[in-house]
Amino acid sequence: MITNAGAFLQLAVIATAIKLLLVPTYRSTDFEVHRNWLAITHSLPISKWYIEETSEWTLDYPPFFAWFEWVLSQIARFVDPAMLVVENLEYASGRTVLFQRLSVIVMDAVLLAAAYALARDVSSDDASSRPGGEGKSKPKKLQGLGLQADVAADQTTAAPATTSHSASIGRGHGNSSIRSESSGSNMRRSIVLFFLLSCNAGLLLVDHVHFQYNGVMMGLLLWSLYAARSGRHLLSGLLFAALLNLKHLFLYAAPVYFVYLLRHYCCEGTVLGPACAEAESGARSSTGKGSSKGSSSTRKGFGLGRVVVRLALLGAGVLAVFGVSFGPFIMMQQMPQVLRRLFPFGRGLLHAYWAANAWAPYAAADKLLAAALPRVAPWLGLDLEKLGLRIEPGAANMAGGLVRVSRFSVLPQVSPAATALAVLLALTPCLAALWAGDGRPGYMRRSIVRSVSYSFLSGFVFGYHVHEKAVLVALLPLAVDAVLTPSAARRFLLLGTAGNYGLLPLIFRPQEYGTKILLFLSYFFVSMVALGSIHAEVQLGPREAGVADDGAALQALFSPSKMQDGSTSPVKSGLERRTVKSPMKGAAVFGRMTKLYLAGFLAVELYVSIVHEAVPALRRRLPFVPLMLTSVYCSIGVLTVWVDMATEWVCEASLGWRKRRKH
Amino acid sequence: MPPNMGITRLSGIGWNSLSTCLSGSVLPREPKLCYSKEEVCHPQVQPSLVGFSAEGAQPRCLSHSLPLPLRYTDSPVNNSSYWPLDYPPLSGYQSWLCGQAMRAVEPASVELVKSHGYETPTSKIVMRWTVITADLLVYIPACLAAVYVFYGTSSSLSSSSSSPSGSAAAISRRARVLALIALLFNPAAIVIDHGHFQYNSISLGLTLAAVAAIGAGRQLLGAALFSLALNHKQMALFFAPAFFAHLLGWALHSQRHRGLGPKILAVGKLGLTVIATFAVCWAPYLSSKEAVLQVFTRIFPVRRGLYEDYVANWWCTSSLLIKWKAKFPAHILLRAAAATTLAAGAPAMAHQIMGRPARPIGGGGRGPTRWGLLRCLANSAFAFYMFSYQVHEKSILLPLLPVTLLAGEEPTLAAWLPILAAFSMFPLLERDGVALPYISLCALYGAVMAGPALSLARQLHQAQASSKARRRSGWLKLAVTGLSGWALRHWAVLASLAVAGNLALHAARLILPPPERLPWLHDRAFITAAFGGFALTFIYLQISQWLEGDDGGRGPAVTAQRKRD
């Protein structure tokens, strides 16, 4: 495997430098929230952690996060003891700010390390083991273009993987010699992935401006995904269990992890297990990190005992994690109190600022109806009172203002149970497909990231009282697939744009306006160009794309004439010329509608930050419009991605089950 | 694989796309909008040490509220003890524009007298944005133009034709990207303009545009642009000898000027251009002799002294041993400064004015080439920084400008000199409360530059070692090449030593309180360390000026100097 620590280090330093620049920017109340938690965990006994309520920002994360704050407070003691006093509300001395900001920056090392591990892991993926349907449709086309590397990789996998040993040799062979030509592109792929994960604009804004510790948790999630991809299932499960005890937002992926671990760890290689068990273990041993039970295929049929052992192992591990976390509170009989803190269902379906999910258009429709019905009803001869609708005059003020329960005035109310049902329904095809598998080797390696990302996205789209920041949890794992397949890249860019744009209203001071816009735009452009260059290369073949790619943008700008005669490669197809010509070749991954939608963000931004501000009448009479417009417009993109992924899962599930029935 | 392939990788994945460079270069400028400067804006307390925020605001009030001729005259409302307008007219006009913007947003911020020390979040944002706008309108376009002129075409790299064309193309691409990055990400320039608050980018941008114009063969346009730069900030005077020498040399030796007539005509044209540009800028003040004199006394405040605070130049550093200010009267010092400055700048000027000699001295040629102009600019600015009268810490930005544009020729020098410059200004930056951005910007610059600069330097060194040009090398060139080769081999050790030295000084400043009798000990240590680096660079640049070929080709590959702390 090619290593190039220099480029990763460079990116890591750049990311950290940008984070340092953000230290003196705006801090939301979350800063005080975390300071308060530092104080609580440091100065109170465990029994008081979930009872203390001097501040309104009570501890409402699971116990591991409280312990995390406790660890931080051990260092904070030496920096400024005053920040650890519970009564010191709103305390923010210079040293406190610096300490808390630096703690986020330093803890981001987890994210950077996980991103590095995943990036290295991705570079060992060959074309055939990429996720999605591409594997079936692409190879012919690629062969036509003379893509030797992919042909070789195809042969490796097309040959029935008889034993794990030979499979591993085949793959190893492919890795070392034949694929040397495409190693450069693999390197580029992993650097792009590292960039996408470590410099995400939304994460920078939420963690380093708004102030939260998402970087650590995203890092753990990525570690768990990395472990799953490299076949260390138990580790992956335990990491995820730990993650759940850091922040329960990750609960949405629990069903996926459950099915994945049950099916592909516990039942692997048995009569109960998936059809592709041999290849699965082959993949594990080829990465050299598999468990010692690599030769599972030879023991097929004898595995029931092993199922029990693994189930017990996994169960014990997960129970131990939860025991360490919640045990003390169970002993102290505080569980009801803790759970009440963790799941405050009294808060209402929507956050003060609507997250860009399915409920945003729903609430917007409700608001429009509430405004329109009283005027339209007399015309239609309807009596609203008779229909059971009582529209209060203040109904137009739902977006903006403090956290509070909002009631819909016209449309039916949505209960927590309904949202939970919706999420589970949305997850069903994904779980079914995971259970069925597709009979080809390396299924989990290809699918785990996509399924986890899909489950978070479903949670975001249909969940109860979702915060706009939750979209990041769905977005980051998607980056892994985005560097592997064009369709995932398209999804990633769309979701990234819509999701990150939806985060911008969080940072509302004029001082940070330029910062947030520049961060957003530069992340968008860099990821678009980078992903575009990767996938342009897949279409062209590495050599041609290499010509097209070497600093194409600057080259095209500075010496267009030289570009033309420089590309004297044998294959001078129209495809190549198209990609060479356009400096924004990244845009090529989008369809026309998507481009139109992305351009629409410009219009939204113009309205929100210029037109609305400049016209006093608008500001007075429609104060909620900017936020509503933002979340509804962003929700279009998010929902598009969700529908896209959901359809894919439905197709995969039906395919998988049909295949199973045949067997 | 060496750990410095980053830039190729990055360029491969599209990092060098223009949009990225631009948005990336604006990005570090941006967050500093939020720096609070309250603690540094009390002019009465520490007149020489305050931040420039108030100083920037006052000229704006003046330009905004007073009729043109009154702006530079002392009066009850325009008191020279409260940050008077002491920049040349173009700055005044620009302040007037900014004042209009401020008035549109917040009228109270530009009222005379009342607005002294005025500072609200809005006024701060608008003022910060005016600097960013100046960057976007003047500096960044000028950078693009200059990089295009100096690195854009492959013909300028013809001297490395002996190497395979593929590698030459790779070198030129890398040099281009490196120069652009060095110009845009220069930490010292960013932190001064956007942290400390000044409008250097306009004057520097105009100078850069002048260099680009001259490099592209439009000498008259270049002269006019440089006159504008001079009229925006008198600090551009640092470059004046170089422009003068280069343009004179061009007028005398250009292929097109055969015979005495055309030569005199060219000189006359240049002179007329400069005079006309000045006349336009000074038009409102030309009504009377007094008005002009008034502006002059404001612009050149000779009474301020030999140097301010702590500057890493010759006078300030050596004052540790010889107390210049106490031993000699001001007028003697003024003359001494003028004489030494002229002496230090003379060799580079001579190089530009003199024609092609029969026998090259150091191995290179002479005469006014565009690369020669760049080196001459660096030398002239360094001469002023080192020896002239009344130098600020911030004046180091001027020598940095040509050095960063030289990044494709002197990659390693361009990689560390801006960081050392920022380091030399650290006492000032710390007072301004921008220590954190200083760290961040230096790390950013180091991360982006170090690896690619080193690999480019190695490529250049190899290309030069193998080229046929070697046969005309003089002893000086051989010595420099040998020394730079040695430095490149031990780059890792030398660089980490330098960085460790830097960090040690920072740590000492942070941890150890200075002894009571020597409260300035840390500041001294900083400028002395920086002076060492600057002096070595200056010497190297003087030598390299004479090694500069007149074939428009590459100069010596790399520098032998390192940061020495």
Automatic annotation (TrEMBL), chain A:
GO terms for biological process: protein N-linked glycosylation. Residues 159-183 are annotated as: Disordered. InterPro entries: Glyco_trans_ALG6/ALG8. Keywords: Endoplasmic reticulum, Glycosyltransferase, Membrane, Transferase, Transmembrane, Transmembrane helix. It is a multi-pass membrane protein. Its main location: endoplasmic reticulum. GO terms for cellular component: endoplasmic reticulum membrane. Pathway: Protein modification; protein glycosylation. It comes from the Eukaryota. Residues 159-168 have a biased composition (Low complexity). Its EC number is 2.4.1.-. It is found in: Endoplasmic reticulum membrane. GO terms for molecular function: dolichyl pyrophosphate Glc1Man9GlcNAc2 alpha-1,3-glucosyltransferase activity. The chain crosses the membrane at residues 7-26, 98-119, 187-205, 235-254, 307-330, 417-436, 448-467, 487-508, 517-536, 596-615, 622-643. Coiled coil: none annotated. Belongs to the ALG6/ALG8 glucosyltransferase family. This is Alpha-1,3-glucosyltransferase. It comes from Volvox africanus. The lineage of its organism: Eukaryota, Viridiplantae, Chlorophyta, core chlorophytes, Chlorophyceae.
TrEMBL record, chain B:
Pfam families: Alg6_Alg8. Pathway: Protein modification; protein glycosylation. GO terms for cellular component: endoplasmic reticulum membrane. The chain crosses the membrane at residues 129-151, 171-192, 204-229, 235-252, 264-285, 328-350, 371-391, 436-457, 524-543. It is a multi-pass membrane protein. Coiled coil: none annotated. GO terms for molecular function: dolichyl pyrophosphate Man9GlcNAc2 alpha-1,3-glucosyltransferase activity. Its EC number is 2.4.1.-. Keywords: Endoplasmic reticulum, Glycosyltransferase, Membrane, Transferase, Transmembrane, Transmembrane helix. It is found in: Endoplasmic reticulum membrane. It comes from the Eukaryota. Belongs to the ALG6/ALG8 glucosyltransferase family. This is Alpha-1,3-glucosyltransferase. The lineage of its organism: Eukaryota, Viridiplantae, Chlorophyta, core chlorophytes, Chlorophyceae.
